[in-house]
Amino acid sequence: MGSVSSSDEAHHVAEVAVWFGGASLVWWFCCPFWALVSFGALPFALVGLVRAWVEYRASRAGRASRRRALVGGGLSLLGATAAIAYLVFLARHPELPVQGQGPPACAGLGRPGA
């Protein structure tokens, strides 16, 4: 009969908070379309925050690295803050063309025949 082990592999928690936090920040540097980035980075950041909380609680029991949980939480918090701040910026400035409105009235002033 096989023995039941209670080693670290049985209690291993996947430490992915750093990956989600990093992904939520990398989007801001890799893609110039920030309106799209904010909608993509926010879910990654929120998942990273939840995973960081789970990993931090697991680190208190000795099943995960506390440092990785805190770094992942910090990266995720930065990514979430950036996404929310940009969404608030877009909401407060409806005159920006990203909102789906047409060009401003002075857009044709430099063209011949206008």
Summarize the structure.
By secondary structure, the protein is mostly helical. It has helices spanning 17-30, 34-60, 66-92. The protein is elongated, with a radius of gyration of 22 Å.
Explain what you see:
This protein is an all-alpha fold. It contains three helices and no strands. It has helices at residues 17-30, 34-60, 66-92. Mean pLDDT is 78; it is low at 1-7.
List the helices and strands and how they pair.
Elements: H1 17-30, H2 34-60, H3 66-92
Helix pairs in contact: 1-2, 1-3, 2-3
- Class of secondary structure makeup: mainly alpha
Helix content: 55-70%
Q: Beta-strand percentage? A: under 5%
Q: How many helices?
A: 3
The average pLDDT score comes to 78
Instruction: Describe the global form.
Output: elongated
| Rounded Rg | 22 Å
What is the string of SSEs from the N terminus onward? HHH
| Unreliable residue stretches | 1-7
Largest sheet: none
> Using DSSP, what is the number of strands?
0
Our measurement of the CA-to-CA distance between the termini, rounded to an integer number of angstroms, reads 89 Å
